[in-house]
Specification:
about 200 residues, mainly alpha, two-stranded antiparallel ribbon, two-stranded antiparallel sheet, about 70% helix
Length: about 200
């Protein structure tokens, strides 16, 4: 899908700017508050992040979220019990698309531009790595995964390739633990500690 979107950007240079992308995007103003300074924009991004996190947590704890989890565990069982699985999957896809669009808008406003180089296959791989490291079955898993990937990428730049090596080691560690991610590993450790 990412490669299709990447090629589509080149197919309509009048709309997307083609290879050069779109530059000079103006950050929005919220009432009288302008987001031109980095600090103001970061606070606005943090507020959006908090609202998105609350929204995802509410959906996760709702009957709709329970339906999503049940479909993920056993699609045929849910269909046999009268749930409209395709409709629920479409709702999940729509909600996740909206949240991805919010993240994309924040990215565009932060850099004040967008180009095809920002949606390469390797960029998609980073998002996949974030979810795997943090944990799939958790709202906080991707948050933790993003924090770890951001920290390792920023702090371990020398020698070249060190950050990729560290993330590879972390990925092997997560895979060896059954693919539960850091949140799953932490929950398992807490359960073992409390049942002693």
């Amino acid at each position: 899908v990412g490669q299709i979107a990447y090629n589509a950007l080149f197919a309509a240079p009048g709309v997307t700017g083609g290879d050069a992308g779109i530059a000079g995007v103006v950050r929005p103003a919220i009432w009288s508050l302008t987001l031109n300074s980095e600090v103001a924009f970061m606070w606005a991004a943090f507020v959006v992040f908090a609202l998105v996190l609350v929204f995802v947590e509410v959906v996760d704890r709702s009957p709709l979220g329970a339906s999503f989890r049940s479909i993920g565990q056993n699609e045929q069982f849910m269909e046999a019990h009268g749930y409209h699985v395709k409709r629920l999957m479409l709702i999940a896809f729509g909600l996740s698309s909206i949240l991805a669009a919010v993240g994309g808008l924040l990215l565009v406003f932060y850099y004040e531009s967008i180009s095809p180089g920002q949606i390469t296959l390797s960029a998609s791989g980073v998002f996949f790595l974030v979810v795997l490291l943090g944990g799939v079955n958790s709202v906080w898993g991707p948050v933790l995964g993003a924090a770890v990937v951001s920290y390792v990428s920023a702090e371990f730049v020398n020698p070249p390739g060190l950050s990729a090596f560290i993330m590879g080691c972390l990925l092997v560690l997560v895979a060896a633990s059954g693919g539960k991610g850091f949140v799953g590993i932490g929950r398992a450790a807490v359960e073992r500690w409390t049942t002693r």
